[in-house]
């Protein structure tokens, strides 16, 4: 028996033993992998279903939010509100209906005028509810909302948002429509106008439609999906619709399901014939978790395990002969083929084939030493041939040098001619660059002037409105003050004086904190309608409730007194807006006048470096609005003898590039300071940075990182030439979010 045969037989026995052991290990691992895979597949199903549910709920909350915002900021009519409600769900078949409930006489103050009108209750209170007909979904019906004054669960959709002033996604419940109890969910948002609750608006989702759309398909063969509400009840069940509205899970695991909903952590438990997985998920800003239940039958696990084991066995025994084959080839390659390779290499050298390479060997045996000897002989022959080739190459290159010198002389003449043409083109490009910058500044300045003009116009209308209100309330005020006690008149005069002195407005979070603080104080003082009165006091600009305000809150004529004070406050605020707007326009025009005046100068004179920078910043701040924040750090008071227009041109190129790099929004930092015998000016922007593709060419003519048609690549070249003209130098550094251009000029005595 040959050495090659014995080697193959021994390898076959060892590989067979390891193959059987590997198959057993794979079978055990496959069981656990299949179990983990089924859980991951269940999670994927739950994730997909929860995404679709969140998507539907988010769209509903978004639509309701649009109506809420519109009604809070405007005073629509009842027909307008009814049209908005129909628009909320008419074109989206997923939603059953939309409704609104307003507090008595807080919608338009005319409830008694609408008694008997459809969509209003017996007192004229505005409570419209539009829904699709049960028999014909394309038909829209209008009814009066029900249960909103109930204090049990049926009235939660109104009472909870009223109490919490927060969004509400209610538990699934049955609602009677056309004689049929419909199982549905309501998505509600409160309507708050000037800090006061006036009603709710909401969309209803029919759960049977949600089941048909998302939960009707049976995953994993005989598995199912279900939607569990925060209360632990089935909102939708993909296999047993009869379970809708009932507690989820088996009695012994219901507490665990409730803990899973509260904590947001997944939960799994065994059921007959399989496993159930509970995957909680959050719903927007609503504080309670919902959950997707996925039931995976055990048949999925065993159906997957058999093919895995069979596949492992087939792969193992299929690879066995392949491994034997490669082992045989290995023995043949590194033993028997070595001698054949040595013979072939020697024959190639003898035939004059010096490109042949010796085979690579890892063992220092006799064959290896033979290959090394033959390789040394080949290297010496190649060295002699290479020396001869080099000599011939030197002779050819000496003849080529003369020809190249002649070509260089001709190219020099062509370059000198092209340089003259380039200077002319440079002047044209510079003029175009400046015209483009002026065009951008002019368009932006007109836009910025329109903004304060719009504010002045709006304030003028507000002043007209407040003057009419004050005029209408003056008779009452004269009568009240004439009959009031001396203390009451003093409280009124102090309050009015404080309002006239305070021009600051409280908005956003600060206003809400102030209102809540005043409301708590008024409740401690047992003031009626503390919430409404606290909102008015905060609107008047007070940060607390002093004694003179507290005395007015106790006055029986508070409503009309506060209305007069609010009108006076409105006049003060409108006058302040007009003052700020006119001051803004004055600064813009003043900056443009200064820029225009310097641009006409063409003689050298002593100028302050920071003054020339301030001229450019003034123009661009006026043009850029408040979306670009300019930070100044002028440490140096250095002056230079120069043509002011030159420095203005330099700063214009750098600042214009910065504004374009930031797309008109970001932070611009300008620093001017002394460094030894030089004055340094740094301009830093928060733009996207200089593209890597042009960083090696920054400052060269026709090198631009802007889009085609936006820049000619001449601006930085002009800035560099101006810096050089006055003996200065410049450098830069750039990365995304921070680009700095630094110019240094020698100090002048």
Automatic annotation (TrEMBL):
It comes from Leptospira neocaledonica. Residues 647-749 form the Histidine kinase domain. It catalyses: ATP + protein L-histidine = ADP + protein N-phospho-L-histidine. Gene3D superfamilies: 1.10.287.130, 6.10.340.10, Histidine kinase-like ATPase, C-terminal domain, PAS domain. It comes from the Bacteria. One of its GO terms (biological process) is phosphorelay signal transduction system. Residues 405-435 form a coiled coil. GO terms for cellular component: membrane. The chain crosses the membrane at residues 7-32. The keyword 4Fe-4S does not apply. Residues 333-386 form the HAMP domain. This is histidine kinase. It is found in: Membrane. GO terms for molecular function: ATP binding; protein histidine kinase activity. The keyword Transport does not apply. Its EC number is 2.7.13.3. Keywords: ATP-binding, Coiled coil, Kinase, Membrane, Nucleotide-binding, Phosphoprotein, Transferase, Transmembrane, Transmembrane helix, Two-component regulatory system. Pfam families: HATPase_c, MCP-like_PDC_1. CDD domains: PDC1_MCP_like. Its main location: membrane.
């Amino acid at each position: 028996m040959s050495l090659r045969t014995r080697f193959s037989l021994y390898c076959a026995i060892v590989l067979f033993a390891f193959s059987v052991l590997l198959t057993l290990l794979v079978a055990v691992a496959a069981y656990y992998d299949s179990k983990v895979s089924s859980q991951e597949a269940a999670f994927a199903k739950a994730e997909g279903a929860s995404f679709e549910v969140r998507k539907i709920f988010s769209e509903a909350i978004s639509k309701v939010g649009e109506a809420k915002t519109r009604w809070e900021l405007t005073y629509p009519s009842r027909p307008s509100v009814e049209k908005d409600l129909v628009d909320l769900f008419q074109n989206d078949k997923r939603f059953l209906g939309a409704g609104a409930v307003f507090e008595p006489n807080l919608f338009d103050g005319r409830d008694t005028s609408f008694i008997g009108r459809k969509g209003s209750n017996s007192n004229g209170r505005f409570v419209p509810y539009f829904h699709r007909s049960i028999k014909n979904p394309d038909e829209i019906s209008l009814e009066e909302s029900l249960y909103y004054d109930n204090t049990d669960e049926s009235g939660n959709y109104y009472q909870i948002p009223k109490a919490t002033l927060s969004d509400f996604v209610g538990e699934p419940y049955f609602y009677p429509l056309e004689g049929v109890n419909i199982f549905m969910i309501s998505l509600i948002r409160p309507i708050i106008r000037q800090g006061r609750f006036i009603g709710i608006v909401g969309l209803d989702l029919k759960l049977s439609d949600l089941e048909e759309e998302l939960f009707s398909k049976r995953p994993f063969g005989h598995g199912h999906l279900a939607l569990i509400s925060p209360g632990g009840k089935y909102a939708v069940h993909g296999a047993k619709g009869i379970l809708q509205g009932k507690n989820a899970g088996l009695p012994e695991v219901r507490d665990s399901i409730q803990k899973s909903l509260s904590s947001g952590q997944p939960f799994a438990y065994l059921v007959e014939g399989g496993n159930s997985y509970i995957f909680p998920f959050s719903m927007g800003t609503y504080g309670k978790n919902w959950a997707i239940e996925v039931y995976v039958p055990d048949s999925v696990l065993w159906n997957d395990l058999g093919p895995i084991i069979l596949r492992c066995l087939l792969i193992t025994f299929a690879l066995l002969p392949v491994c034997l084959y490669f082992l045989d080839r290995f023995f043949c390659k590194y033993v028997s083929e070595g001698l054949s390779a040595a013979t072939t290499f020697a024959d190639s050298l003898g035939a004059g084939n010096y490109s042949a390479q010796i085979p690579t060997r890892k063992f220092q045996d006799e064959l290896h030493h033979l290959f090394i000897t033959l390789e040394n002989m080949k290297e010496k022959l190649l060295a002699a041939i290479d020396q001869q080739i080099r000599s011939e190459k030197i002779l050819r290159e000496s003849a080529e040098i003369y020809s190249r010198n002649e070509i260089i002389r001709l190219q020099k003449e062509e370059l000198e001619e092209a340089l003259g043409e380039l200077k002319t083109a440079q002047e044209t490009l510079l003029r175009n660059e400046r015209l483009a910058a002026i065009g951008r500044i002019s368009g932006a300045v007109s836009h910025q002037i329109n903004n304060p003009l719009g504010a002045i116009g709006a304030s003028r209308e507000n002043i007209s409105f407040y003057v009419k209100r004050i005029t209408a309330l003056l008779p009452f005020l004269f009568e009240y003050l004439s009959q009031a006690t001396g203390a009451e008149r003093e409280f009124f005069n102090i309050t009015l004086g404080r309002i006239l002195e305070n021009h600051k407005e409280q908005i956003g979070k600060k206003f809400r904190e102030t209102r809540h603080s005043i409301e708590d104080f008024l409740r401690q003082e047992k003031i009626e309608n503390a919430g409404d009165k606290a909102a008015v006091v905060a609107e008047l600009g007070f940060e607390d409730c002093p004694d003179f305000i507290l005395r007015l809150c106790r006055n029986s004529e508070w409503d009309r007194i506060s209305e007069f004070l609010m009108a006076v406050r409105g006049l003060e605020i409108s006058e302040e807006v007009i003052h700020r707007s006119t001051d803004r326009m004055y600064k813009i025009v003043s900056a443009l006048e200064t820029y225009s005046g310097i641009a006409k100068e063409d003689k050298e004179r002593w100028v302050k470096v920071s003054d020339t920078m301030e001229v450019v910043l003034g123009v661009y701040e006026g043009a850029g609005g408040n979306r670009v924040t300019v930070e100044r750090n002028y440490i140096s008071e250095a002056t230079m003898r120069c043509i002011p227009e030159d420095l203005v041109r330099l700063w214009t190129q750098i600042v214009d590039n910065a504004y374009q790099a930031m797309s008109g929004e970001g932070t611009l930092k300008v620093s001017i300071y002394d460094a030894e015998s030089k004055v340094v000016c740094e301009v830093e922007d928060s733009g996207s940075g200089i593209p890597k593709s042009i960083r090696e060419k920054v400052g060269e003519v026709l090198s631009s990182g802007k889009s085609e048609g936006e820049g000619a690549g001449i601006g930085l070249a002009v800035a560099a030439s101006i810096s050089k003209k006055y003996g200065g130098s410049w450098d830069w550094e750039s990365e995304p979010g921070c680009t700095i251009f630094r110019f240094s000029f020698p100090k002048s005595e």
